[in-house]
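::Amino acid chain::
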Amino acid sequence: GRGDPVANLPVEGRPALAMRAWAAEIARPGEAIPPSAAELTVLRIHGGSIAFWPGEPHVRHALDLPPDCLAVGHTGASLGYIPDEQAYPRGGYEVDVAHRYYGFPSALAPEAGPALRAATAEMLAALGR
């Protein structure tokens, strides 16, 4: 997210407890966060294909895949939300907050979605798509 990661935390209820735990145990303000590995699986089935993504892709990612490719999210170890590039300047829950509930120190980098789309395209090409 942008700015101070512990500013404006909720003050009561379960969200507040989750955010305080995140701020105390996971947030690393000012610290570089190393890249994470992500598992992606693509299958060809009866002339179509299915891409299993390691998180919840924004719809733009799915729309950018070939029309006969179904995108399925939250498979394997989930990375949480995978915002499209246009979401980052707008901010909001998926970009600024959701990673805290997933237990990650920050949201995915804006390059994550395009990298997963490119990897999906490579895998489809290797399968003869």
